[in-house]
Amino acid sequence: MRLDSHGITTDLPAGWEGRIALRRSPDPAGRSGFETRSPEGVGPTGHPAEAAFPVAHLANFPLPGDRGDFGSGAVDLMTAEDALVVLAEYGPECAGTPLFSHRGLPSALRPDMFSGSALQRAIPGQAGTQIWCTVANRAFCVYVVLGRQANANRLLPQVRSTLSATRISAR
Amino acid sequence: MSLPTATAPDPAAERGAPLAAAGIHRDAPATGAAPLGRATFAQRVVQRFSDALAGRRSSRRSFLTKTAVVGSALAVGPLDFILKPGTAYGYLCGTCTDGWTAFCCTVNNGRNACPAGSFVAGWWKADNAAYCCGSARYIIDCNATCPTQCQCRCGGNSCDNRRTCCNQFRYGQCHTEIACYGPVVCRVATCVPPWVYDKSCTTTVRTDNRTTDHGAPCLTKDCGSPIAKKYAALGGPKGIMGALVQAEHAVGDGRGRRARYRNGNIYWTASTGAREVRAGRLSAYTTGGGPTGPLGYPTRDTFTSRDGAWLVNDTQYGRLLTHKSSKKSYYLAGGIFYKHQSLGGLTGVLGRPMGNQRRAKEGRSLCQDFAKGRIYVLDWNWAIVAIHGKVYDAHQATGGVTGPLRYPLADQVASADGRGGHQSFEGGRIYHSGAGAHALRGPILDKYLADGASASVLGYPKGGHTKVGDGAGEYVLFENGGLWSSPASGTWRVHGRVLPWYLARGGALSDLGYPTSDLGGTGPQGRVQEFQHGSIAIAADGTITVL
Hints:
heterodimer; A: 171 residues; 6-stranded mixed sheet; 3-stranded antiparallel sheet; 1 helix; 9 strands; 8% helix; 29% strand; B: 547 residues; alpha+beta; 3 domains; 4-stranded antiparallel sheet
C-alpha cells in the first residue's frame, strides 16, 4: 500500500497500515470568530500562531482513530509483535540545527539503539528510539516503538523495510 | 537554569556516543526503568498503597470520600473525574508506574518551572483544558542537561507520584541548538504559549489530549475569570449554584463562556458580564435555545418581580420567568418579549405566559399563549401581533386563525370616541365596545366601513353574523341599527325607528323581505326605504307606512 501526502511517500510492507495527517490549526483570531480566547490569545484548541506540520503513523497493527502525535492511544494497544513508526515534521527553522543535524532518514536501526526508557510514556516491555534528522531540508523526528524490546531482532527488519521505502520530497 | 551555549561541545559527542552520529541524541547510558527499586521507604509505602487502591479498582465515587485529592481533582477535571471508569488516584495524581513524568512543581519546591540541571526541550498541547479555564493547555518538558546528573525515581509526593528523570524522550521544539538531552526531569504546565514562555521554542505544535487533565496538588490555577469570581461570590460549592459539574468553557459562538453547576449555569460575555441562571429558568433557557438562541446571554441575575410572584432573569433579548407558586418556568424572547412588554408585561393586557413559544398548528406563524391573549409572529412578513381581551375571546369563538377571520394583520386600534376599538384580520374585523366584541366580515363589513364604521349612525356591533331563517342572507345588529345582506338584495342598513318596526314585522322573513336600499332623504312622503317586496315611508312624526 502506498501513502503519499504532504511530501511524504511510503510503500508499506504487507500487513502494515499508515496515516499521514496534518492537524488543523486554530483559526487566526477574528477570522472565524467562533472561539473565545484567553488573554494570551489561546483558544480551546490552541493559539493561532501554532504551526502544524504533517505526522505519519506507520504500524504493523490496526491504528486506533484517536492518537496523540507520538502515538499515545496506539502504543497502549501494541502486542509483543507490533511496531510503530512515527515521522513527525518540524518547522523549517529547525532544519540543520544541532538536534536535527543528521542527514537522511535512518536506514540501519539496530537493537542497541532502542531503550525501554526512550518512550514518550514508559510501558513495560516496550522500547523506543528517537532519530532526529533533516531530509530534503525538512526537519523530522523519527520515533520508533517496539512492542517488546526482546523481539527487536524480529521486528526491526520490518521497520527498516518501511523506512527504506519512505521518501521525503522538498517543499 | 544552566544551559549549555550553542557553541558548547555536545556532551554526548564528547563521550563519542555512536548513536549521536545516527541522529539519536539521548544521553547514554539510559537510566533505569524501574524507579521503584530505588525509591525511598516512604515512596514505596505510598506506591504500594496507591497500587493497592488501583488493584481494588476503587471507584472514583468511593475514592471521592476517602482522599484529599478530591479538591484538586474536581478543580482540574471534575466531570471526567466523576464519570470516567478507573481508579480515582490514577486519574489526577498518576502513579510512579503510569509511565508519565511528574510535574515540576512536585519536584522543584513548588515551582512550576524547569529545575537546575534541566532545560526546556519541547512541548505539546492538550485541548479544552480545565486547568486553563477551557483554553488549550501547554505542557513543557524539562529534559536533563548532559551529562545527566539525576536518577530515575518516583516523584515522592502522595499525589503526583509520577516518575522523574526516567523517560528519555524529547518533544524537540525548544533549544534545538542543544542536541544531547537527558531524561525528562519534570513537566511544566502552562496556559501561555511555549514560544512566549521560552523564546527558544518554535511554534511547531504537537498534540496529546490524553494529558489534558493531568494534575498535581501544586498545580492549582485560579482562573480569575469573571465566572470563577461570580461563582465564589455566590458562595462557591456551598452556595446557590452548588458543586461544579462542568468546568468553564467556551460556548462556541466566539463571544461567551459558560460553566455548569449542580443548580444552574453561569454565563459570561464581555458585554453582559457573568450572570447566573438557575433551576427552572435554566430549563426554559435551554428550551429557548440558550445563549446562541433568540434569548441571547443573561444580563441580570435572578430577581423577584414587583408583584412578588415571579423569579426572573433578564437576557439580552428576552426574559426567563419562574412562577413561584406553580414552579412553572417560561421564556419570552425577541419580538414576542418586546410586544408583551409594550402591552404592560405580566400585569398588562396579556397577563402571564401560559407556555413557551411554539409553532401554530396550522404552521404559518410562531405564537405564545398568555393568560389573556396570544402573540403571533407571522411567517410571511415577520409582523408581531397581539390579540387580547374580548377581541381574543371573540377571535377564538370564531375558530381563531383556522376560522374565517384567520390571522390578525395589526394590533388593536382604539376608536376616537373612546368607547371601543377594532382589530383587523385577514378575513374581517372584530369591533369591541361596551356592547361586546363581535366579528364582521364580507359585504356587511364592507358596508359598515363604507358607512363610517363605529362613527356611523350604526355605532358598534352588538352581535355577530346571524343567518336569516330562509338561508338566503344574514344580518348583524348594531347599537343603533342593523345591516342585512343577501346575494339577491345586496347589503343595506336599517336603523332608527325603522329597525324595531322592521324586526317586529319579522325582518327579512317579513312580507317586505330584505332591504334593497338605505333609508333615503326626505321627500313628499317622508323618508323612503326600499325592500324586495315593497317600500316604506317614515313621516316627520315617525309614522311608518307601507307604500
